[in-house]
Amino acid sequence: LTSPVPNEWPVTIGYKPYWLSYNGIQITSENAHDIMGDGTVYYDEETDTITLNNANHTLKGGIGGGYWPGSMSINVNVIGENHLTIENGGFIGTVDGHVHVFGPGSLDLDINSSNEYGAIGIEGSYVKISVNRLDMTIRHHCDNPEEDPYSDVYSRGIRTANLTLSCNELNIDVTSNLDTYGIFIYGYDGGVNNSCENLRIKAETTNPDAYTATAIHVFTDLTVNKGRMELTGDTAVSVRNAMTLPEDYVVEGAVEEFV
After folding, report:
1. What percentage of the chain reaches a pLDDT higher than 70?
2. Cα(163)–Cα(183) distance, rounded to whole angstroms?
3. Would you say the C-alpha torsion 116, 156, 43, 54 has a positive or negative sign?
4. Predicted local confidence at residue 151, as pLDDT
5. Which of 20, 53, 73, 225 could make a disulfide contact with 64, Cβ separation 3.0–4.6 Å?
6. β-bridge pairing 169-176 and 180-185
7. Is residue 209 scored above 70 in pLDDT?
């Protein structure tokens, strides 16, 4: 492979370091064409795109070590069959940036965490997922969770203000000894727009004193355009504003409207 990223750093350095990492490896102009040395992960600076091409790795941390500076955005192109096991970290996340996971392939994510703040799979202010298939399994347990009442202490598969889904198949399964959410939508201006053919979400807490295990929690609107939605949790859907469904569409599980 030829690196798609031109070396624009001063010659005295020899390579250009970028702002993100994969598996704790800082991505540079020198290794961007083959980050893991097996031809399965590469980065294009011009489009801010990491490509996973039949990658099969056990990672110390996901993309960017789970988080990176606030306004950064990233695209993940999924080709072929990919399977990532992530130990004590998330797959990808940014506080204020956009995340787009796309491509004709499939991605299996197995995330194991003992973080005191809970676990997370994907986070961004705007998240779009349009791969053929995404399976995300999160298993979290922490003996001493963070007790700061002003901190977000819970586990969630996807956390965002705006979520657009257009997969053929999306499966999210989250188990934690904290409050647990499959999808958690914060803020008051976004929502969920779902066009998946098959959407399955399961949220489970192993702590009988936990407040909730909710498959989809939305502060704003939930719009379902087509497909089948199977939701499992103490609550299937918790929605503040409107829930728009196709005619005769049935949501299996308890639906809660809150104010």
Report:
1. 83
2. 9
3. positive
4. 55
5. 20
6. unpaired
7. yes
Three-class SS state of 218: strand
- Contacts of range 236-239, beta carbons closer than 8 Å, 24 or more positions apart: 238/212, 238/214
The pair phi, psi for residue 91, each rounded to 5°, is -75, -50
**Taking a C-beta distance cutoff of 8 angstroms, is the pair 159, 184 a contact?**
yes
Do residues 215 and 184 make contact, with C-beta atoms less than 8 angstroms apart?
A: no
> What pLDDT score does 139 carry?
94
Residue 147 confidence (pLDDT): 64
Query: In 3D, which of 136, 130, 88 has the Cα closest to residue 108?
Result: 136
Sorted by sequence, the CB contacts under 8 Å of residue 78 that are 6+ apart come out as 52, 101, 102, 103, 104, 105, 106, 107, 131, 132
Instruction: Report whether pLDDT(7) > 90.
Output: no
Q: How many CB atoms lie within 10 A of CB 45?
A: 17
